[in-house]
Amino acid sequence: MSNSENQKQTRLVYLSFCTQKGGAGKSVFTTLIASYLHYLKNYNVAVIDCDFPQWSIQKMRRREAEQLQTNAFYQRKAESLFTKLGKPTYPIVPTEPEQALARAKAFLESESEEYDVVLFDLPGTVNNENVVEIFFQMDYLFVPITTSRINMESTLPFIISINEMITMNPQVRLKGIYPFWNRVTNRERKELFNYYEEAILGLGISIMESRIPQSVRYDREQSIEGNDYLFLSTIFPPDKPLLKDSNLDLLVAEIIKTINL
User: Fold this and answer.
1) How many C-beta atoms surround the C-beta of residue 207 within 10 A?
2) Mean per-residue pLDDT for 83-103?
């Protein structure tokens, strides 16, 4: 293997936003982090959409591309972005979970481009044996959590079991699992956060400092009229006015530090 191939393999990072059930925001965070890293931080990113049969990220890309064909506002926005960026949108590769790793490998081998980060959007369940196996082939797992008791009762055992497997099997690729607070509101009590954080840290698991507030902006996609700010997109980065107080920039900075990009 050549030195350049070694460098490529060394720097390539596999990561996933994972949950033990659907509807917890994993696809949203996968899209937001991919777009932020690719368009604003200039890393080369690819997304493996394994969330079969929804393939929500792939469907979003198709929906956005169709709007781009007919909307002059988005056309001008795209022309300005990609002229400045000097590279196209990041690729999204749809596949079934059983084929995810093989599909990612085949895709990377077929590309002349070198990638820094590959994000895997996995189904929101741990009942699929193939999904569990993929977890341990990632470099890093990030888990959005809330202070909801129902959420914690299902999330904590999931985080604990993954962390125990890492501890007992140092030969696995997975380096760590990192929970972070999501959908935080002003009504939540500080002592509740402290209680859960002490419990998680007591298990030897690092919890991230970034806290993502409850906000409708996290679902704000391209509008039909196409003349407003957007936040969630596979073709564009979040618009600056909506980034303010979103804490997404803080989360991205912490992820970059955690995965040593």
Assistant:
1) 19
2) 96
String of DSSP letters for 71-125: -HHHHHHHHHHHHHH-S-PPPEEE--GGGHHHHHHHHHHH-SS--SEEEEE--S-
Which parts of 136-259 fold into alpha helices (H)?
Answer: 149-168, 190-202, 240-243, 248-259
pTM of the model: 0.92
Spatial distance between the Cα atoms of 219 and 240, rounded to a whole number of angstroms: 16
Q: Is the dihedral of CA 100, 108, 261, 216 positive or negative?
A: negative
Provide the residue type at 44 as one letter: N
Q: How many CB atoms lie within 10 A of CB 49?
A: 26
Helix (H, G, I), strand (E, B) or coil at 219: helix
pLDDT in tens, 115-153: 999 999 998 765 667 788 899 999 999 999 998 888 888
